[in-house]
Amino acid sequence: MSASKRVDQIAGHLNYPKGMLAGQVAIITGSGQGIGAECARLFANEGAKHTEKAEGVVSSIQSSGGQAIAVTGDVLDDAYIKTLIQKAADFGNGKIHIIVNNAGYTWDGVIHKMTDKQWHTIVDLHATAPFKIVRAAAPYFRVKDGEPRNIINISSTSGLHGNAGQINYALAKAGVTGVTKTIAKEWGPNFGVRANTVAFGHIATRLTAAKEAGAFVQLPDGEKVALGIPQKQKEAAGGQEHADIPLRRPGTATEAASAVLAVASPLFSYVNGETIKVTGGRAM
């Protein structure tokens, strides 16, 4: 085969007229804003149908010609997880192809002051909830129909390296990589399921914005958890806040979501059980 024919063959393989995810049904948790919302939009652009948690994002996708439904609820609620999976399967005519476990937030505190409530809330949110979602979706992934199946768990550099003030978040995000590898080893051999982790560094979202901006999450009991990084902490860097990032800037939500799309796509068809770091080179 000549070099030109080989190039043509590769180009043909990379051409997806209906989108790289055409005909696939994806669950993306935490898609109301930030990285999750961008994942939803990018997946829709590639032909995927979505089950999400946000009416506004769904409306935007539908107005652009995509297909999506919103299933609002709390991933810490077992009843909600059951409903989420059932509605996704109904939406997909009995099939689910992709799960992106993205929902989450931080509730920081130094070790000696962290409460049990802080600990359990964040560990349950970032590690237990993804496990329960995957477990509930097992009947739709442990199948042999020749169609691709993907599970993508979102992690963080806090889980890879630890981070002062985030011992709860670090534990959960480190644990999710083990969850990912176990899924790959259990469901890869007989069912062809791919499972990978995407670990983000500093991405510009409400979790990394100035705390003084007032973003918060309200817990079921009414308690409010403030989000963001205190301005004084940012100022303490003396203008060198991103000095440890070779690109010298935070990533955007679109850049983060693009990495998730790449992992879910056929372009990563032989990548399984891996942790893909999206950090701008930070801590390499």
TrEMBL record:
Query: What's the protein name?
Result: NAD(P)-binding protein
What is the originating organism of this protein? Macroventuria anomochaeta
